[in-house]
Amino acid sequence: MTATAPTGGRIEIAGLTKRFRGFSAVEDLSFDVEPGRITGFLGPNGAGKTTTLRMVLGLVRPTSGYATIGGYRYGELERPLSTVGAALEATNFHPGRSGRDHLRVLADAASIPTARVDELLELTGIPAAARKRAGAYSMGMRQRLGLAAALLGDPQVLVLDEPTNGLDPEGIRWLRGFLRRLSDEGKTILVSSHLLREVEATVDDVVIIANGRLVQAGTMADLRGTAGALVRTSDAEALAGALRVADVTSSPGEEPDTLVAETTDLRLVGDVALRAGLPVYGLEPRSTDLEQLYFSLTEGTNRNEGAQSAADQQVPHQPAPDQDPGAASAEEVSS
Amino acid sequence: MIPAVRSELRKFFSTRLWWGIGAAMFLAGAGFAVILAIVLTLEASPEAVAAGQPTGSPTQVANSVYTGGITIGLTLSLVIGILQIGSEYRHKTITGTFLAIPRRGRVMGAKVVALLLIGAVYGVVSLLGSVAAGATVLSLRGADPFPDAEVLRALALSLLVLGLWALIGLGIGILIPNQVAGLLISIGVVWIVEPLATFALTFWEFGRDHVVALLPQSATNAIVGGVTQQTPTAAEPLSWWVSALVLAAYAAVLAGVGTVRTLRSDIG
């Protein structure tokens, strides 16, 4: 019944709100997560991502609103581990229990055979280490063990909270390929991260929240916008006119005598300039600065709501606009 | 429910705690049995009895010998109960537990069943030590190691006692979220607060007659029916089955309150 629900493996979140003693962690949040796609769930630390995911998984009771998976709330699922797999934190292990026993404890609870446990240890590449006690595991091993736990019941839907935390570059690449394979099988995958850069190569859709509110939801392509070409010439206005004749829209660049043409065809821009008798001092492809866009999106709302004292305590300080955003956020501790 | 209980049992037996506690149960059972089998078969002079030397019928002596390690046993059971839920919160494995079984009442029910089973198993381990050692020493000293079938009742009830104390631990483990604090406080209550309270209450007539017997360890000792003090200020113990109900009430209230709290709480 649960596996063949009419909405398949879609996650639907509607009007989800959670308030803790007057502090609003998540406020009227609504979005859908589609099957067969990887959705990035983004926001700065303290934005309410983890609280949202915990409400989806029935661990935290919403103040109002609801979240359903394939049309059912988590608590109503007949076989939860075979419907939704979740990896929330890489530290959810008893240090004195082996990784394999950790999985067997969960497998027992969900009536999953031990053979499946060993199969997953192979799949996630930790069969030998899994017999050692989990307290000695590296962060990367914990992430893999968490992923193995999420996949135990071969679920249609995967919910992963900051799965790249603590993974080395090789691990991140492995995870990317792994998630892509699962998504190609038609699974619904929701991955949270506080860094757009970490997931931008992986995700198809993005949902961005800040201060518990939705800021943006759409495809990654929408967020990127149209790619263009940045051209530097002596008379930007004249070149804009020449490009218009060639059916290419353009807009003035940030610096004087520069132009952003809405085409990825650099050769076309060069040819037009040559025909118009205008010099080309520089010509390069230009894509949206996603990281900059992400920070402007999440920071704008933050500033508007900065009056909440409780929110100030909860939300780590945003990097100032002139700082390098990547360097600043790398120092933040994950929520 | 059976898968949930199996999962709880695997949680307990997949860390190194279980054999350490098992060894302690066995040694405490055997050790106290030897000591009590010697002490309780000493000739009791009237002066010594008046000064507080515990005495009893051959049945009470046998009961005391075989369940002499019960204070250690109940303390260890308490620890097991606290850890069965406390370590889930401490190491955040409670998240995985509730993801696998979102019906939290079922999880708590499984913990209760598992702890009663674990208590009974350790009770058997403890009795293996205490009956083997105690019966040997009693025979050597010329006392009857099995004077009455009532001894068997005491042995069977000691299994229940350990399970009930584990449930008391389960409740404490939920009500005192800091696991280390929970362990220290409950052990302090068992070893220091309750003995002091029992002593203090003997100076107050109402307390001696109506309160002391209701304290958890007094109830425990009355269930297994051991020797008693014959001094004028000693409290009169309740019958074994009333005491069993009293101890079960402690377990039910603490585990029940803890369960209700768990059902409603946010797991963050």
Keywords summarizing the entry:
heterodimer, A: 335 residues, alpha/beta, Rossmann fold, Alpha-Beta Plaits, 6-stranded mixed β-sheet, 4-stranded antiparallel β-sheet, 12 helices, elongated, disordered N terminus, B: 268 residues, 0% strand, ATP-binding (chain A), ATP binding (chain A), ABC_transporter-like_ATP-bd (chain A)
Could you explain how this protein is built, in words?
The complex is a heterodimer of chains A (335) and B (268). Chain A is α/β, with parallel strands linked by helices. In chain A, 34% of the residues lie in helices and 24% in strands. Chain A folds into 2 domains: 11-223, P-loop containing nucleotide triphosphate hydrolases (Rossmann fold), CATH 3.40.50.300; 226-286, Alpha-Beta Plaits, CATH 3.30.70. Chain A contains 12 helices and 13 strands. In chain A, the strands form 3 sheets. In chain A, strands 5-6-7-3-8-9 form a 6-stranded mixed β-sheet, sandwiched between helices. In chain A, strands 11-12-10-13 form a 4-stranded antiparallel β-sheet, with helices on one face. In chain A, strand 1 and strand 2 form a beta hairpin. In chain A, helix 2 (99-109) crosses helix 3 and helix 3 (114-123) crosses helix 4 (139-151). Chain B is mainly alpha-helical and 268 residues long. In chain B, helix 1 (2-13) crosses helix 7 (104-140), helix 4 (58-66) packs across helix 8 (150-175) and helix 5 runs antiparallel to helix 9. The two termini of chain B are 25 Å apart. At the A-B interface, helix 1 and helix 2 of A face helix 1 and helix 6 of B.
